[in-house]
Amino acid sequence: MDVLRIILQVLLVLTSGFLILLVLLHKGKGGGLSDMFGGGITSGAGSSGVAERNLNRITIGFALTWGVVIVLLGLIQKIS
């Protein structure tokens, strides 16, 4: 069980880091801090619709992986 726990912990750290980066790559929707710091100026020069959809899919995939790893770590903790 120790090897599985270490593998899941490493996977958790990696998916957490990638998830943070992927969320930060998303285009701002306006009205929040992104407009306050100049995000509204470049909103027209953002990524295309296809790139944004792909980014959404990748983000959802990493989020689901992250959630599964959290649940598995919790189950391992409960068993031990």
From TrEMBL:
It comes from the Bacteria. InterPro entries: SecG (IPR004692). The chain crosses the membrane at residues 6-25, 58-76. Keywords: Cell membrane, Membrane, Protein transport, Translocation, Transmembrane, Transmembrane helix, Transport. Its main location: membrane. The keyword DNA-binding does not apply. It is a multi-pass membrane protein. The keyword Nucleus does not apply. It is found in: Cell membrane; Membrane. Involved in protein export. Participates in an early event of protein translocation. Belongs to the SecG family. NCBIfam families: secG. This is Protein-export membrane protein SecG. It comes from Paraoerskovia sediminicola. The gene is secG.
